[in-house]
Amino acid sequence: MSDLHTPTAQRLRKPSWRDSRLLIGLLLVLASTAIGAYVLSRADDRVPMYAAKSGLMAGQPLTADDVVRVDVQLGDAATDYVSAQDAIPAQLFVLREVRAGELIPRSAVGLQDEATSQPVTLQVDATSASTLREGSVVDVYVNRPAAPAKGSIGATNFAGPDLALEGITVVGLSTEDGVLGGARDTRPVQVMVPKDNVKELVGDVDLGAKITLVAVPGAVSQKAS
Q1: I need a labelling partner for 178 at 20 to 30 A (CA). Which of 28, 51, 88, 135 fits?
Q2: Does one domain contain both 135 and 193?
Q3: Domain range for residue 88?
């Protein structure tokens, strides 16, 4: 009977650094580590900033109720916006419109004497007021009292209408009626008026002028209700 060949067991060799599978595995580990470190470092670059909770109008005071904190990556541009690392300073006012959800630029806020517009409440023709809402952009037409015609008694005559202001924003509407009585039914509407025009508009109101607001087609501010 012939002897059967018995195979000799071979020892497993330790993987060498030349083994391609080992190199690929090491590269994958290194790549995963690098990607993870990069993601964490980018997340750490986020900084807290203030964004407008709803639309901000020029002339209004800025308070904590008007803003929300958001964490964003801005890099060097972070100094251009209002940081949420500190509380909103007292006596800070909005100098120009900021839309809802937008970061608040430092250039859009300042002291009260820097504001270019002021809120003014007008008694407006009720029919024209019924089509408006907060954020509507309107033109202001004024019918000023005219000298009564010779021999006329009773009703006041009005001249115009004259275009007094263009493209101003409605910031408040009242559900209460104002002066009642036929064609003089009015409703209070608060608008932002450029400072240079406040005096003349208040003078028209004191003279008893009729004021009508006409919405600018397609022009609506993003102020939230």
Answers
A1: 135
A2: yes
A3: 47-113
Q: Is the dihedral of CA 108, 140, 185, 223 positive or negative?
A: negative
pTM over 0.85: no
The domain total for the chain is: 2
Whether residue 109 sits in one domain with residue 51: yes
158-216 residue pLDDT tens:
887 999 999 988 888 876 655 444 445 888 998 888 888 999 999 999 988 989 999 98
Asked if residues 169 and 136 have their Cβ atoms less than 8 Å apart, the reply is yes
User: Residue 61 forms beta bridges with which residues?
Assistant: 93
Are 55 and 98 in contact, with CB atoms under 8 Å apart?
yes
